[in-house]
Amino acid sequence: MSKEEKELIKSSEATEWFALINLAHILTEKQEILVKSTEFCKTLGTSQQTASRRLQNLEKKGWIRREKKFNVQKIEITDEGYHAIFHIFDKIKDIYERFHIVGTLVSGADEGRYYVSIKGYYEQFKKKLGFEPYKGTLNLELSDHHYAILTQKLNNLKPIIIEGFTEENRGYGSVSCYTSVVYKLNNPDTICKSAILRVERTFHKAHIVEVIAEPYLRQFLNIKDGDKVVILLNNNY
Fold first, then answer.
1. For the segment 186-226, what is each residue's pLDDT rounded down to a tens digit?
2. What would the pLDDT profile of 105-139 be if each residue is shown by its tens digit?
3. Domain identity same for 110 and 212
4. How far apart are alpha carbons 208 and 203 in whole angstroms?
5. H helical segments located in 71-186
6. Crossing angle, helix 48-60 and helix 14-27, to 10 degrees?
7. Could you tell me if 11 and 126 lie in one domain?
């Protein structure tokens, strides 16, 4: 963390962050707004005097510019104010990622597509998971931290077992499945029922997690290599 960021945190009160974010919500795509302190206090859930004090503090910090026009104020968020908002976002995102299982999308070698397409596996996936999976897997690379969280959670859950079998003199091992939902980080509105696979034999390195779902997840979630995906285990959907 830079010296400037430390000073930013040190000098800021939670109430001022809240006031700034609420102003940003009101502004939306506008560059400036005309607002009465009586209206802004309703947004903050405070008295008019407190709302006025919040605006004064934001102006002192250089996060907003104000110009009084009759009984209203013209308010504009400054570049410094937007920098503060982005800093808040980064800090919250960091906290969010620490407490959720987040993986980075990477390309596979079509190993998942091959195995999901095998009839002995495919028919069991349909029957036991309750959906007809897309013939391919989503490969998510996890950090040491997130992989440890995932492993701990999976060890405390009862898996759905896809039984191993023999086909054309070749043996196929069993697969443990864990029901889940996935969505693109920062876009929780588009969520998809899925399952995490624990395969006995795989060419993936240890921190790659394979996910299957009914739709083609790259298209459904609008994701590409490098994007971050959140995994929620054992949800009710």
1. 898 999 999 999 876 554 566 899 999 999 999 999 999 99
2. 999 777 778 889 999 999 999 999 999 999 999 99
3. yes
4. 10
5. 79-98, 111-117, 119-129, 144-155
6. 90
7. no
Looking at the structure, tell me whether residues 219 and 153 fall in a common domain: yes
Q: What is the mean pLDDT of residues 3-23?
A: 64
Provide the 8-state DSSP code for 46: S
Same domain flag for 129 and 216? yes
Adjacent-strand bridge partners of 138: 211
User: Are 68 and 130 contained in the same domain?
Assistant: no
Radius of gyration of the chain (CA): 25
* SS3 category, 50: helix
Do 110 and 207 have their domain in common? Answer: yes
In three-state secondary structure terms, 153 is: helix
Q: Which two tokens stand for residue 226?
A: 């490098």
Element (H, E) at 51: helix 48-60
The model's pLDDT over 55-105, given as tens digits with 9 standing for 90+, comes to 888 888 899 888 877 777 788 888 888 888 888 777 776 666 666 799 999
- Of 38, 59, 94, the one marking the end of a domain is 94
Asked if residue 124 and residue 56 are part of one domain, the reply reads no
How far is Cα 180 from Cα 153, in angstroms, rounded to an integer?
12
> Could you list the residue range(s) of the whole structural domain that residue 219 is in?
101-233
Q: Report the domain count for the chain.
A: 2
